[in-house]
Amino acid sequence: MKGSRSIVVAVLVWAVACGSGAFASRGEFDGEAALGYVEAQLRFGPRVPNTEGHRRTGDWILEQLRARADTVVVQEFQHVTVEGDTLRLRNFIGSFRPELKDRILYVAHWDTRPIADNDPPNRRNQPIPGANDGASGVALLLGVADALRRTPPAVGVDLLFVDGEDYGDFSLDRDVLIGSRYYASQVNREHLPLFAVVWDMVGDRDLAILQEGHSVRRAPEVVERVWNKARELGYERFFRPTVGGAITDDHLPLLDAGIRAIDVIDIDYEYWHTTEDTIDKVSARSLKIVGDVAVALLR
Ligand SMILES: [Zn+2]
Fold first, then answer.
1. Mean of pLDDT values over 73-82
2. What is the DSSP string of 171-203?
């Protein structure tokens, strides 16, 4: 009698552990900390180039990187838009093990979109908060930096925060992907990374990442590497082995520069380019799922 009762208790404890804490123990990435980094960015307001919120957020990212990475490089540049405005932009690069030749590049954009084009007309001219579209990618990279600070990677890792991704008009290819284009123009083609991953819109509570079209066509082995890692971690429910649409994102300038780059993006997001892209739409759990994959790829 006593024996069987303790088995029942043991099974109950196991069930509770698997129900609530299943994700907490799967990898090194701290999802709650990453959600805190989303919150910290939203406190600066929209991160639209040439605004105070943008400048302060950039300074904050720089400070976070200096506290974690081995070396930090700032790329400062200007971009004149089709309207004739001069944008003052910055890319940030935090490097781990800068002495190593074999390197992996992770990318996220830190600016946010100045207009909510997917909102009804009365709100369309407002900037988006960018909790998922902007802040989630930055939070992911900072969470990766935390993990690499605790346990340095065996390969070199560069975390690139690009500016001016979401500024202009994608349909006309005007004033978009500005920071990644600048980075690509400066890259040393003799020393390219082994591969690169752009992490964009990775915080959606309802996470389902399909394989992005350009990535599958132009760097299929990197897609395979990332999706295999997700499967190994038991995350195949969230990293679906299905090819989705082709998306214009920061991986394209990198691919054009000869880098084996892919885009990990959950574009199926109701609040995309709206003023409703707020923190309640993202979750620590989703950030952890993607973050665990991102860190495991570096181990
Ligand atoms: Zn966007």
1. 98
2. TTTBS-SHHHHHHHHH--TTS--SEEEEEES--
